[in-house]
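Q: Convert this sequence to structure tokens.
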Amino acid sequence: MTAYQLLQMLGYALNIVGLVVCIAGLTLARRERHRLVGRLLAVLGFLIATSPVLVQLLGLVEPVPTGVVPPP
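A:
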């Protein structure tokens, strides 16, 4: 299994976990006392959710080249 295939499999889980962390952070940021912690948690959740795309964008994981498609 290549790193690209592993990233595709983990992409859905990372999106869901990141979304939950981001929503928790935004909910926490509504309180004046926990505003900074909530904002940092929301940013962390956003980074978790976008990590599969960011990893590909930074070139750390490259897609597996597909074979040549034969003519019909």
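DSSP finds two helices and no strands in the chain.
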